[in-house]
Every structure is written in C-alpha cells, then in structure tokens.
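Notebook entry, structure prediction.
Reason for the run: the old model in the group folder had no record of what sequence produced it. Starting over properly, with the input documented here first.
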Amino acid sequence: MRKRRTRRRAAAFVCTLIMLCLAVIGIKSGLEMSRNIKYPVEYSSYITKYAKENDLDPYLVISVIKQESNFVPDARSPYAAGLMQLTEETAHEYAAKMGLKNYDYTEPETNIQIGCYVLRKLIDKYEIVDTALAAYNAGMGNVDKWLADPEYSGDGENLDHIPFPETRHYVKNINKYMAEYKENVPMLNGGESR
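New structure, fully documented this time:
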C-alpha cells in the first residue's frame, strides 16, 4: 500500500514537473512569437549589407522600413512602392547615380539598396539624422524651406518644429522604433530573418 502511494506521488510529481516545463516552453515560445510580430525583421541580410555599404546604422534602416511598409515587400501608396517606399522618380534618379541598370526598384533587395543610398545622401546633405528623415518623408524642397524659416528652425540646421503632422509623427515614430528595436532585437549576421 505504501509503495503504491509513493509511486503515485512520484508519478504526480513527475507529471507536475513535465507540465511546468511545457508551460515554461509555451510561455517562451509565445513571447518570441509576440516579439516577432511586434518587431519584424525580414531581409536582414540586405539591410546589414546596404547599411554597411552606406555607413548607416542598420537599426535606422529597419526603423524606416517598419514605418514605411511594416516589411510588406509589395506595399504601395499613391506615390511610392516597396519596403522603403521609394517614388519611381526618386528611384530612377538615384539608381542612375549608383550606376544601376535593368533593375526593378520595387524588388526588396534593390529597394533597400536604393533606399539606403538615398538615406546616406540625405544625411550627408543635412548632417542631422532627424532632418534627413524629415526630407525622406516630406522632400528636400519642404525641408529646405523649413530650415530657412525662423518659425521652424532657429539655426538653419535643426528643425525646431516640423509643420506637417505626418512628417512630425514619421520622425518621432522612427526614433521610437530605433530605440525599441535596439532593446528587443539583436541584429543577425547576414540571416534572411530572425
């Protein structure tokens, strides 16, 4: 009788231990799945390659893609397409400067390649990442006007106020995404996704 009780207790203990282990594994898997949904990182090999080629923080590129398309490769807006939402005109202008021929600017690798080049040129021009991001979203013409207007820029280099709510939120969101991605997603070395 005692042996049976001991065996039952041991079996109950083992079952409880197995259930606890399965619960921990389930929680960890659920957290990982949740993180992958909240912080997608597709095309990381292209992101790291072209970020490096253009001396960009890969988290900046990830954050621009998150804001622009949420990693949907065939995303389209009325004026732009692809992961980094390039306009056809911008893509052709910069592709020519890059010496690209026979390309599809909406194809993920090419879109990231051109988008990183555009970001680098904007950062070189404005020297301030937030100002470059505003130009990526609203265009250089608008940003140049804002920098020349003391209502929006006290020093002609920094934007103290961005008059377009969409652009103001765009810059704010990218900075938020950069902080969140840096905290939650370690970059892979050349993988296609996580």
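Summary: Residues 125 and 132 are 8 Å apart (CA to CA).
The old model has been moved to the deprecated folder.
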